[in-house]
């Protein structure tokens, strides 16, 4: 009996999840791609991987210098 109730609760949760997913506003792939391309072109000048870094110190990917004592 407990297994039957548990299964019923699980099915209700699945149904509710499917209802939430069905209610999500969807757009076509072509519209999503166009939006992504517009976002990229609008923010191109802020992208350090495209335009580079203003100085060597601003680059978090630079090789770390090691301290050598003689």
UniProtKB/TrEMBL annotation:
Domain G protein gamma: 4-70
GO term, biological process aspect, one: G protein-coupled receptor signaling pathway
Main location: membrane
Location of the protein in the cell: Cell membrane
SUPFAM superfamilies recorded: Transducin (heterotrimeric G protein), gamma chain
Protein origin, superkingdom: Eukaryota
Entry-linked InterPro entries: G-protein_gamma, G-protein_gamma-like_dom, GGL_sf
Family to which the UniProt record says this protein belongs: Belongs to the G protein gamma family.
Protein name per the record: Guanine nucleotide-binding protein subunit gamma-1
